């Protein structure tokens, strides 16, 4: 395993563990998801450059576009939750009370 592969794998796993274990605020969960997407984007970009295939070059840009859509939807949910519940704590959210 190369050091770059190890660092991107570690960054992804740290983001995943942040989502799994630190679920107190919605904003921290969104930041962990963005860190995971950033590590995936950089890893996919480096992989397509190392492979040298032109077929895979649009894949990192598509991942970045989906990541931007995910971030905007997450921020919209954060604002809506903060307006209705007054806080972004995930303990106050209940799917059965919608």
TrEMBL record:
Compartment list: Mitochondrion inner membrane; Mitochondrion membrane
Q: Name one GO cellular component term.
A: transmembrane transporter complex
Catalysed conversion reaction: a ubiquinone + NADH + 5 H(+)(in) = a ubiquinol + NAD(+) + 4 H(+)(out)
Question: Which Gene Ontology BP annotations are present?
Answer: ATP synthesis coupled electron transport
Q: How does it sit in the membrane?
A: Multi-pass membrane protein
InterPro entries referenced in this protein's UniProt entry, alphabetically: NADH_UbQ_OxRdtase_chain4L/K, NUOK/Mnh_C1-like
Q: Where are the transmembrane segments?
A: 6-22, 29-49, 61-80
The entry's keywords: Electron transport, Membrane, Mitochondrion, Mitochondrion inner membrane, NAD, Respiratory chain, Translocase, Transmembrane, Transmembrane helix, Transport, Ubiquinone
Report the protein's function: Core subunit of the mitochondrial membrane respiratory chain NADH dehydrogenase (Complex I) which catalyzes electron transfer from NADH through the respiratory chain, using ubiquinone as an electron acceptor. Part of the enzyme membrane arm which is embedded in the lipid bilayer and involved in proton translocation.
Q: What is the protein's given name?
A: NADH-ubiquinone oxidoreductase chain 4L
Q: Which gene encodes it?
A: ND4L
């Amino acid at each position: 395993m190369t050091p770059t592969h190890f660092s991107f794998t570690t960054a992804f796993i740290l983001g995943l563990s942040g989502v799994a274990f630190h679920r107190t605020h919605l904003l921290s969960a969104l930041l962990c998801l963005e860190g995971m997407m950033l590590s995936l984007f950089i890893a996919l970009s480096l992989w397509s450059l190392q492979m040298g295939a032109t077929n895979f070059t649009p894949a990192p840009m598509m991942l970045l576009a989906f990541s931007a859509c995910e971030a905007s939807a997450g921020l919209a949910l954060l604002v809506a939750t903060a307006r209705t519940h007054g806080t972004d704590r995930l303990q106050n959210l209940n799917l059965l009370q919608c």
